[in-house]
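Question:
Now give any protein.
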Amino acid sequence: MMKAASKLLPLALLMTLAGCSSDMSDLERYVENAKTKYQGSVKPLPEFELYRSYEYRHEGRNPFSPQSAVERREEPANASGENAPNTNRRKEALEYFPLDSLLMVGTLKREGFRWGLIKDSEGTVHRVRAGNYAGQNYGKITSITENQIEIVELVRNDNGLWEERSSQLRIGEQ
């Protein structure tokens, strides 16, 4: 079997080489045709304005310095009078978010207490109960039902006096 294969191999090689010819006129004709048929153009680059440097001079806080993830709000200069908020207490996590960015996602009843579940704008779910605070207007949670959380906020009126404003977070509503 090996002897027959060794005799056929030179014959197959000879036939393969015979199929190759040095005539490449059809290929050259195709290339010339393609060159004349497809003429491309490149648009010139647009003109760019020269860069003018600017020197920033900051007064007070440098906006380019690193900051914490949640910035603390400035407390009102005059937080006194009837209904004034307690500015000396430590703020709770949900007080750093506007009330309209919070979403009630459910309730939970445990050990005789009803807890509300609130999702903040960053996607974190917080467990709250009556007496906790939420929103940036000193909102205090007054009651929690299956469908809503009642909140009383403290806001300044046109005269600069503090007044209460009722708000609700309803389940599934933002």
Remarks:
- The chain has a mean pLDDT of 81.
- The longest strand covers residues 148-156.
- The chain is about 20% helix and 25% strand.
